[in-house]
Amino acid sequence: MPPDPAPLRVGITGHINLTPATERLVADALRVELRRISDRPVHGVTCLAAGADQIFARAVLATGGTYEVILPARDYRSVAIGPDHRAAFDELLENATEVVHTGHDRSGTAAYVAANRELLRRVQRLVAVWDGEPGCHDASTDRTVEWARQRGIPTTVLWPTGARRTPTVD
């Protein structure tokens, strides 16, 4: 009997600022999508940002899969992960099968672009939790979706009916 094929490698990109109700909708949609795209558990690739990335990691685990983490910068946890999300980040980071560093010291657009590009190098599919609106910098969800499509990576955009983002403070 031949060995089981390697799991499908699925990356995530998506919004950070989701309402609590939207987080529940997205979690359900992600579990459904992961089961739809593969008849076996997947291997996820994520940066573990708050919002879509952390929800994705939990959905991968809930469907029997594994995941790896790409950390954009050495200071990522302290700079990019808000205090309310650090415990979840730490727990999810501990469950990763592998942690990859981009080599950047400081978080910011350059580090996030490097992480998104590394993520796309490692995946066969991309799931985007995206409301369809253009982003405001080169590491925005829309740019990652565009890069994936340019590379021929099949991409699913999820934005459940009733989903909302929380207002951002400028």
Task: Explain what the structure shows.
- With 170 residues, the protein is α/β, with parallel strands linked by helices.
- The chain has one domain: Rossmann fold (3-Layer(aba) Sandwich), CATH 3.40.50.
- Helix content is 39%, strand content 19%.
- The chain has helices at 20-37, 52-62, 76-80, 86-94, 109-121, 141-150; strands spanning 9-14, 43-46, 66-73, 99-104, 125-129, 155-158.
- Strands 4-3-2-1-5-6 form a 6-stranded parallel β-sheet, with helices on both faces.
- α1 (20-37) crosses α2.
- The longest helix has 18 residues, at 20-37.
- It is globular, with a radius of gyration of 15 Å.
- The model has no long low-confidence stretch (mean pLDDT 94).
Order of helices and strands: EHEHEHHEHEHE
The neighbouring-strand order within the major sheet is: 4-3-2-1-5-6
The parts where pLDDT drops under 50 for at least 5 residues are none
Characterize the largest beta sheet: strand count, sense, and whether it forms a barrel: 6 strands, parallel
Task: Tell me, rounded to a whole number, the average pLDDT.
Answer: 94
Specify the number of helices: 6
The CATH class turns out to be Alpha Beta
CATH architecture identity: 3-Layer(aba) Sandwich
According to CATH, the fold-level topology is: Rossmann fold
How many structural units, i.e. domains?
A: 1
Distance from first to last alpha carbon? 58 Å
Category from helices, strands and their pairing: alpha/beta
Helix content: 25-40%
Number of strands: 6
Share of residues in strands: 15-25%
Dominant shape: globular
